[in-house]
Specification:
The chain has six helices and five strands, in the order βαβαβααβαβα. The chain is an alpha/beta fold. The chain has a single domain, classed as Rossmann fold.
Length: 168
């Protein structure tokens, strides 16, 4: 079975993605989420996810993320696009560095994410880094495992982590 580097945004999406990906891949979990703010929210998500998965954890570079999106912070599409580019690029780079031939993201689980944008960015990065982007559409399973999330005590957040998308 081939390896895949799976960018993981949170425990619940990691759990959902694993249900199907583990049938085809040996999954290596990668945590790079500079968009998650405040620090307490970041820690809560990471600590919850670590109860189920062992991660390759990259730096929490929230300042770099804020600098990258500061001029587009209130433009939902552009802000999300930059966030996807930042996180998927780091994932593709890390996969290449680790000699893992496949990469993907648990962002593809969420019905709240922009799938066409994620797919296009992933495919562009596939060409750029010569590492295969594995697209999957598991939005239908987002709610399927809710009871198991609760059983496992996984933190079920109400927003992507970006302070600009946080419900007020």
């Amino acid at each position: 079975m081939e390896n895949i580097l799976l960018h993981t945004c949170c425990g619940i999406c990691g759990f959902s993605a694993t249900q199907n990906l583990e049938k085809s891949f040996n999954i290596k979990y990668y945590w790079y989420n500079p968009n998650i703010h405040l620090v307490s929210e970041y820690k809560k998500r990471l600590d919850s996810a670590k109860t189920k998965f062992t991660f390759i954890i990259d730096t929490y570079d929230w300042k770099k993320w804020f600098l990258r999106i500061k001029n587009i912070a209130y433009n939902n599409i552009e802000r999300c696009k930059e966030c996807y580019i930042m996180r998927l690029t780091k994932t593709a780079e890390k996969a290449k560095e680790l000699k893992i031939n496949n990469f993907s993201s648990t962002l593809l689980i969420s019905p709240y994410q922009k799938h066409d944008l994620l797919k296009n960015i992933g495919e562009d990065l596939q060409k750029r880094f010569n590492v295969k982007f594995h697209y999957f559409d598991e939005r239908k399973n987002f709610y399927k495992y809710r009871n198991q999330y609760r059983e496992f005590g996984l933190y079920m957040q109400k927003y992507c982590g970006c302070v600009f998308s946080k419900p007020r």
